[in-house]
Amino acid sequence: MNDKESLLKKLPDEYYEFLYKTDMRRDPRVLHLMKEKYSLSVGKSYRSILNEYVELHHILPRFLGSNEYTRNYAVLRPSDHLVAHIILANALGGAHW
């Protein structure tokens, strides 16, 4: 198991359950974008297709060594993005803020 996998396993189940419920990448209108690398233009594509403001969230936080790769982001509404960070802050003792 590589370091990123072990870091991902240390994050709380509540975090993953929340992301599973709120991640908008499974919407049929945007499934084709899931293979795209994280970028500002991909975020704009999601916003345009979904016709609402959404944000890209790093599943494994950048401060824990994540990068901009394809599967390391979730597409969340701003309020859900904040909740995801609050869950992480609680789990990590606020270390990422």
Short key terms for the protein model shown above:
97 residues, mainly alpha, two-stranded antiparallel sheet, 4 helices
Integer-rounded radius of gyration: 13 Å
> What is the straight-line distance between the termini?
27 Å
Largest sheet: 2 strands, antiparallel
Mean pLDDT: 86
Low-confidence stretches: none
The structural class is: mainly alpha
Number of helices: 4
Physical arrangement of strands within the biggest beta sheet: 1-2
Instruction: Estimate the strand proportion.
Output: 5-15%
In brief:
The chain is mainly α.
Overview of the molecule:
With 97 residues, this protein is mainly α. It has four helices and two strands, in the order αααββα. The protein has helices at 3-10, 13-22, 40-50, 78-92, and strands at 55-58, 73-76. It has a two-stranded antiparallel sheet with strand order 1-2. α2 (13-22) runs antiparallel to α4. The longest helix has 15 residues, at 78-92. The radius of gyration is 13 Å and the shape is globular.
Compile the SSE list and pairings.
Blueprint: H1 3-10, H2 13-22, H3 40-50, E1 55-58, E2 73-76, H4 78-92
